[in-house]
Amino acid sequence: MTTITAQPTMTDDYKLLTPGPLTTTRTVKEQMLVDHCTWDDDYKAITQDIRANLLELAHCDPDTYTTVLMQGSGTFGVESVLTSVIGTDEKVLICANGAYGERQADICRHAGIAYTLYREPNDRIPDAGRVETILDEDPSITHVSMVHSETTSGLLNDIESVARVAHQHDCTMIVDAMSSFGGVDIPVQAWGIDFIVSSANKCIQGVPGFSFIICNTAKLEASRGKARSLSLDLWDQWDTLERQHGKWRFTSPTHVVLAFSQALREMRAEGGIEARHERYARNNRMLIARMKTLGFGTYLHDHQGPIITTFTYPQGVSIDFADMYAFIKERGYAIYPGKLTEEETFRLGNIGEIYPEDIERVTELFTLYLAERGLLAACTGNEDIATVLDAMRAAGESAR
Ligand SMILES: *Cc1c(COP(=O)(O)O)cnc(C)c1O
Fold this sequence. Notes:
Blueprint: E1 15-16, H1 26-30, H2 41-57, E2 65-71, H3 74-85, E3 91-96, H4 99-111, E4 114-119, H5 128-137, E5 143-147, E6 149-150, E7 155-156, H6 159-168, E8 172-176, E9 195-199, E10 210-216, H7 217-222, H8 234-243, H9 254-270, H10 272-292, E11 297-298, E12 308-312, H11 321-330, E13 333-334, E14 336-337, E15 345-349, H12 356-372, H13 376-380, H14 385-399
Helix pairs in contact: 2-9, 3-4, 5-6, 9-10, 10-12, 10-14, 12-14
The protein binds pyridoxal-5'-phosphate.
C-alpha cells in the first residue's frame, strides 16, 4: 500500500529549500529572545569564541590566521575584502562562472578597482591551467578571486588548483565560500587561501545579519590604509576586534551573534563539518534521484555540489513555476526560482535543518502536484501515482 505522508495543509510555518536564509532550529531562534549589551566582557567573550571556532573549522593556525566578523549580508563581506585588500596600484583576476562571480566584478567596477574577468559558462569550472596562462601574460595581476560553491547553478569549483597557481605567481587568493563553508570541508591554510568569506545564515545554520572573513593575518596587516569604504574597512574592523578583545567597531547584531554561537554549538554536537557534509550530501543524492523519476533533470552533468541543485523541466511538458511554487509552499516547503538566463530551470537547496524525511515529503508533493495538474503521465510515462511513488522511493533509497 502506498500512502502519501505529506499532509496538504495551509501553513505559514514552511521550511526553506533555499540556499540561505535557511531553516534553523528552534533553539537557535530562541537565543534571539535575549537583548544583550555589547560592552560587557561576557558578550565580547562570545565574539572571541566565535572567531576562534571559525578558525578551527577552517583548519587555520591562530598564529598566522585571524577571523573578522562584519555586519551585513554575505555580499558585504565579499565587498569588504575586495575593497580593502586590493590597492590602487594592484589588480585582481576574477574567475567567474555564475552570478556571484559576476557580482565580484560589479563590486570592483563600483569601487574603481582594476580587474580582469575570466569567464566560464555556468556549467563549466574555471581551469587552473587557463588561470596560469592569464597570470603569465599579465604580471600586473596581484590577486585572484573566485567563488567556491556557485549558488547560481549549484556547482562546486576547484579552488585548490587555482589557489596553487595563484601562489606560484605570488598572488593573494580570495574565495567566496558563502554557500559551502561549514557544509564542505575546506583546509584554508593548507590550500593557501588568504581571504575566505562566508556568512551566518548558510551552512553554519545561523540567521542572517553578518558575514565572516578568515584572513591570513600578515596579508590583512599589509592591507592597512587601502580600504575605499569606512564601514567595510576590513583592517579597521579587525583592529577594533583585536584591541578591544571582541568589541565590534559599530553596533553589533547582538541577537544574530547569540544565535550564531548556538548554531556553532549545534554543529559541533552534530559531529562538525564532516557530519554536516554527510547529511547534506545524502539529502542531495536522494533529492536528485527522486526528482529524476518524475522527469526532472539536473542542469549540471559534472561538478554538482551538495548544497543546491538546478533542475530542468521534463521534456516537452509545460509547467508554470509560480503555480507549482504556490502549491508546494502551501504544503510546507519554499522552493527556489532558477537564476540561469540560457535555460528554464528552478532550484532546490538541501541545506539547513533539512533531513531525508523532508526530501521524501517535498518530492511526494511534486508528484502530487503533477498528478493534480494532469501532468503525471507526460512527465513519468505512468498515470498511476502509487506506481510513480514506489519507483521514486526505490530510487531514493538506493541513493541514500
Ligand atoms: C548567498 C551568497 C552570497 C551572498 O549573498 P547575500 O544575499 O549578500 O547574503 C554570495 N556568494 C554566494 C556564492 C552566495 O551563495
